[in-house]
Amino acid sequence: MGDEIRVNKSVPIIPQKKTLKHAKREDQQEHKHKNEAGDHFQQLSNAAKLANDVLERDKSPYRFRIYQEGEEVFIDIVIVDDDLTIKETKKTNITHEEFTTWLNHIEQGNGLFFDITA
């Protein structure tokens, strides 16, 4: 009798795995988030292309570079040569707000101005 184990109350067993319904819902939310990130990236890329076309037309060496790493989208300002090869990165990881401001300046014919001393 010394080796007996007595259980006075039952203990509920909580499953370690997520239920199929919960896992499916999370997958759908993640897929929706990836689609939104992809759509956002495409919109930024289209805007950058239009701005880069104007900059090229005006013989400016500056261009916007948009790229995505995972779900994060990055915007840089670069200098290109005549062959459109990137020679220098002037400003990295600019904010969406800065990007929008510069797009408006370019659209209004004011050009691209930024402070690289900050």
TrEMBL record:
Region (Disordered), start-end ranges: 1-43
Basic and acidic residues bias (residue ranges): 24-39
Source taxon at top rank: Bacteria
Protein name: Uncharacterized protein
Organism, as annotated: Candidatus Scalindua brodae
